[in-house]
Amino acid sequence: MAVVGGLAAAALAAVVLDRLLLDARASCGLTLSITTHLTTPHGRRPGMAEPIVEVSNLRKTYGEKVAVDDVSFTVEPGEIFGILGPNGAGKTTTVETLAGLRHADSGTVRVLGIDTQRDPEAVRDLLGVQLQEAALHDKITVGEALRLFASFYADPADPAELLDLLDLTRHEDVQFARLSGGQKQRLSIALALVGNPRIAILDELTTGLDPQARRATWDLVERVRDTGVTILLVTHFMDEAERLCDRLVVIDGGRVVAEGTPAGLVDGLEDDRTVVVRFAPDDAARAAAVLTDLAERHPDVHDASDAGTLGEIAVTGSRRVLFAVVPALAGADLVPDDVRTVSKSLEDVFLAVTGRRYDPQAGDALVEGARS
User: Fold this and answer.
1) How confident is the model at residue 289 (pLDDT cuts 50, 70, 90)?
2) Spacing of C-alpha 91 from chain mean position
3) DSSP state of 44
4) d(Cα 253, Cα 8) in Å, to the nearest integer?
5) 195/191 Cα distance (integer angstroms)
6) What does the alpha-carbon distance between residue 31 and residue 264 come to, in Å, rounded to a whole number?
7) 281 touches 310 (CB < 8 A)
């Protein structure tokens, strides 16, 4: 058992508290930067440009099934706007209707002021669409595909420049069937951009890619945005939306259940904070008892439970939970091997608004969870 004297315990408390306060100060700084951004009732900040996309009260059914139910949102020029939700939520139907590929039962969609339901042809050249499955012949090469698609447009992008932008130059003569998953996705992005669109719709861009290919693809999406293209990113990956999106809507069951910036949505959750402490096996049981007792008697500590890893205990409480945990451990002469704070994420937002938890280990599968 790790036991220290009073002075050593005080020193330990000071060191651990200092580490935790760094996280707390960073969190507070983030909160302030978010809450000082004033918005209009439609989520737009004063002085922003007119939306490049406006979706109002969109509804689409297939027989008895309601795929999209009263969906509304706006997209600002030059941003990456996310449409986030599980498979079957209505994300793809929404963007296909936006692109004029499907006709809505009711509601309006405007792209640069053009009603896509009344005049879908007028917006075709404004949009570049990368759908979930690439449908190219196995024998066509990267360069041939780009030149073929470029021939469909009056003012196409330079295929050579797209090859360079998307790191495909050295694969120009490689047949589609011989490309890796990440290379196929980069080609899909290139084909979506070859018509010089104002807006690119990227649908489930990184599904099936390994972690390294996913991160490389995220970097490319940001490079495309930096060229001035507005991006609609359809995804069921919470981490992808947090990394890339300036703003997003969360869709579940065909309805918008949350809307805002990733940081703003997370910051809007209840103020609970979580501290995870790890102990050597000999100390874990006593530490659990100390922290469980703390949760029962201290107003700033709401719960202490097994964190899922041997020797780790998760302590949840108010913003001042940091100030309760450290003195309690020091007072019991307990020295943790590690202390860390756990930040909330879009997964917590999804749980809060749907009552169901997203399981990243099972793709986009959802398991029942308690509403927070």
Assistant:
1) very high
2) 14
3) P
4) 55
5) 8
6) 8
7) yes
Residue identified by tokens 């669109």 is 197
CA angle, 142 as apex, 141 and 145 as ends, to 5°?
A: 85
Cβ contact 227:158 at 8 Å: no
Pairwise CA distance, residues 224 & 192, whole Å: 11
Q: Are β-strands 114-115 and 255-260 bridged in parallel, bridged antiparallel, or unpaired?
A: unpaired
Cα separation, 161 vs 36, in Å, equals 40
d(CA 104, CA 152): 27
Size of the chain in residues: 372
Joined tokens for residue 171: 């694969």
CA-based Rg of the chain, rounded to a whole angstrom?
Answer: 25
Report the run of H or E that residue 27 belongs to, with start and end: helix 6-35
What amino acid is encoded at 18 in this protein? Answer: D
d(CA 262, CA 279): 33
- DSSP helix/strand/coil, 6: helix
Q: Where are the beta strands (DSSP E) in 166-300?
A: 199-203, 230-235, 247-252, 255-260, 273-278
Token pair of 170 as six digits: 């050295």
Nearest to 247 by CA among 78, 126, 93, 98: 78
Is 321:345 a contact under the CB 8 Å cutoff? no
Answer whether 115's CB lies under 8 Å from 121's CB.
Answer: no
pLDDT band at 28 (very low <50, low <70, confident <90, very high): very low
Maximal CA-CA distance, the chain: 79
CB-based contact 192:128 (threshold 8 Å)? yes
Q: Which of 307, 302, 300, 317 is nearest to 284 (CA)?
A: 307
Write out pLDDT tens, residues 354-372. 877 766 545 454 544 433 3
* 274: confidence class by pLDDT, cuts 50, 70, 90: confident
Question: CA-CA distance, 13 to 329, in Å (whole number)?
Answer: 8
- Is residue 57 helix, strand or coil? strand
Cα dihedral 321, 327, 329, 331 in deg (nearest 10): -150
Ordered structural domains, the chain, with CATH: 2-267 (3.40.50.300), 273-342 (3.30.70.270)
Question: Reduced to 3 states, what is the DSSP secondary structure of residue 8?
Answer: helix
